[in-house]
Automatic annotation (TrEMBL):
Protein name per Swiss-Prot or TrEMBL: Chloride channel protein
Chain ranges of the CBS domain: 451-509, 516-575
PROSITE patterns linked to this entry: CBS
Keywords from the named record: CBS domain, Chloride, Chloride channel, Ion channel, Ion transport, Membrane, Transmembrane, Transmembrane helix, Transport
Gene3D superfamilies: CBS-domain, Clc chloride channel
Keyword Ion transport in record: yes
Pfam family, one: Voltage_CLC
Organism: Algoriphagus confluentis
Listed transmembrane segments: 6-25, 46-64, 141-167, 179-196, 216-233, 254-272, 304-326, 333-351, 363-389, 396-416
Signal peptide extent: none
Length: 575
């Protein structure tokens, strides 16, 4: 069997396994929520909402830490880092750990989504299947993308959007041949979900209004609003996470975070869990029903109260999501970004219709389009957002406003914030991803692999005559000057002594320390190749010394780096 055919078979298998995992997680969450919230009095339910998130996060944390050895938190940033820096290797435990911890977190009311845990699970399945079959890092990365595509496709029933998500967010750069395994995995994930669960969708609606070009000015304003809300979402998530990290004790994070989240859910029940049920009510025009579970607002049907209530949810949802993760829960911000976007779009259209100016706006259209806008702004994935919502709506009726709002939101967000929330979270952890393919390839080369150790050192108290004797046996024209502890004091080049090396008097009188000079730059053995290349460019040098705690190790030359770069480029092309 050819290598390509083998990868295609593996991609289909990974799609099926990811689809099964997605179904298990969704069914587990629904079963837990049904068990906890069914058949009790509404007036008492809210008091239980205070306790449920704390219990769920606590059980998920202890299960992850002591049983599974995989504590929750963000998933997609870690997947990106493993692809870039860890040869596309993801720990085996993640093939099932996030299914368990996320089911407990979200089932008990943690305000996060299931999409990120499913992407982690699918990616871990892809990585470990690739490792089992002895595939190289590049093909393992492709199978990670297949796992992510299969998981997203199974959750939303959107195979095209899932493939684009895998390319735009997970893999970042793939060849045209790589699309085929992604397509197969995505289709198999969707089919698996359909076979096991039927054609039931997360969103239940039937669009009756048609798109009108007269709505475009309002979509433009909505796009700007989505961009600004995306910016708020990203910054509030990071600020809240940093505040949680300031609580050094995990018990304090768990108790304070769980209690605070419980009180948020107590006052604003729609924040409980993923929140897709709330979006369904808004899309169907049943906005008054979102107040029914609130102990304070259930008896009111004032439109202004509904608007204020929803605005508070927009402001609190990113905080609640970050608290859930910071306290020890497992989940992601994929669903919260869709949730906040949907509420924003509804509030925008609902408020405009209340004013009764110009033309009436379709609430369902603006709710769905704003989901696309905020997802594009938060995750910096405009194409994924467009196709995901287009497939959810079952057609291309909203394709023009989806494209327009996604572009405006993405442009607005990137004007103030260059990177996606995923990359910013990695940076907060002291990690970084390569920005270009060139940088990614350079990062695979380490200084220790390109050090040249055949440059002969000389003591700083030696005479010029000793240096000339060294020149006779050396094949290089650079000589590092060191002390008794092998610390680098300077360098001497052949050009520095060419005019005086045959003068007998100077051979005996001049000391090496009188002739040496400082190198233009010095490299540390712990530096990455990107920093090393910046020093080469800044200094204009062709060779630079390498030190380990001030001790001389050797030299690195541009030609050696270029040779290593070329070999890796050819190997990558061959793979």
């Amino acid at each position: 069997m050819s290598n390509q055919a083998f990868v295609l078979i593996l991609s289909g298998l990974i799609g099926i396994l990811s689809g099964i995992a997605a179904v298990i997680l969704k069914e587990a969450v629904h079963a837990i929520q049904k068990f906890l919230t069914e058949d009790f009095y509404t007036e008492y339910a809210n008091f239980l909402y205070i306790l449920y998130p704390l219990i769920g996060i606590g059980v998920a944390y202890f299960a992850g830490k002591y049983l599974l050895k995989d504590v929750g938190g963000h998933g997609i940033p870690d997947v990106l880092f493993n692809i870039s820096k860890n040869s596309a290797l993801i720990p085996r435990v993640k093939m099932y750990s996030r299914v368990i911890t996320s089911a407990l977190t979200v089932g008990f009311g943690g305000s996060v989504g299931l999409e990120a845990p499913m992407v982690v699970t699918g990616s871990a399945i892809g990585s470990n299947v690739g490792l089992l079959m002895h595939l190289n890092a590049k093909k393992r990365a492709l199978l990670i993308g297949c796992g992510a595509a299969g998981a997203i496709s199974a959750i939303f029933g959107a195979p095209i959007g899932a493939v684009i998500f895998a390319v735009e967010v997970i893999l970042l750069e793939v060849s045209s041949a790589s699309f085929i395994p992604l397509l197969i995995a995505s289709v198999m994930g969707s089919l698996t979900s359909m076979i096991l669960m039927g054609k039931e969708s997360i969103f239940k609606f039937n669009l009756t209004d048609s798109f009108s070009a007269s709505h475009m000015p309002y979509y433009f304003l909505l796009g700007i609003g989505c961009g600004l809300v995306s910016l708020y979402f990203s910054r509030m998530v990071r600020k809240t996470e940093r505040a949680m990290e300031d609580l050094n004790d995990q018990w304090m994070r768990l108790l304070y975070g769980g209690a605070f989240l419980g009180f948020i859910v107590f006052f604003f029940p729609p924040i409980y869990g993923e929140g897709y049920e709330t979006l369904n009510l808004l899309i169907e025009g049943k906005s008054a029903q979102i107040l029914e579970k609130s102990p304070f607002f259930s008896s009111f049907e004032n439109p202004l109260l509904i608007i204020g209530f929803l605005i508070m949810i927009i402001l609190l949802k990113p905080i609640a999501s970050a608290i859930t993760l910071g306290a020890g829960g497992s989940g992601g911000i994929f669903a919260p970004s869709l949730y906040v976007g949907g509420i924003l779009g509804f509030v925008f259209a609902y408020t405009k219709n209340m004013v009764d100016f110009h033309i009436e706006l379709p609430l369902a259209h603006f709710t769905l389009v704003a989901m696309c806008g905020v997802m594009a702004g938060v995750q910096h994935s405009p194409l994924s957002a467009i196709f995901l919502i287009a497939e959810i709506t079952g057609g291309y009726e909203l394709f023009i406003p989806l494209m327009f709002v996604s572009a405006i939101s993405f442009t607005t967000t990137t004007y103030f914030q260059k990177d996606s929330l995923y990359k910013l979270q990695l940076r907060d952890q002291g990690k970084s991803l390569p920005e270009t393919k060139d940088q990614e390839l350079l990062d695979t080369i380490t200084l220790s692999h390109v050090i040249e150790r055949d440059l002969l050192p000389i003591h700083h108290e030696a005479r010029l005559l000793d240096l000339i004797n060294l020149v006779k046996v050396s094949k290089r024209n650079i000589f590092p000057v060191v002390d008794d502890q092998k610390r680098l004091l300077g360098i001497i080049t052949l050009d520095d002594i060419r005019d005086i090396m045959f003068d007998p008097e100077k051979q005996k009188s001049l000391l090496v320390k009188q002739l040496m000079h400082s190198p233009p730059e010095v490299l540390s053995i712990t530096e990455n190749m990107q920093t090393a290349m910046e020093k080469f460019e800044r200094s204009g040098a062709w060779n630079l010394p390498v030190l380990e705690e001030e001790r001389y190790i050797g030299f690195v030359s541009k030609s050696r780096i270029f040779n290593a770069y070329r070999k890796r480029l050819l190997r990558q092309k061959h793979d």
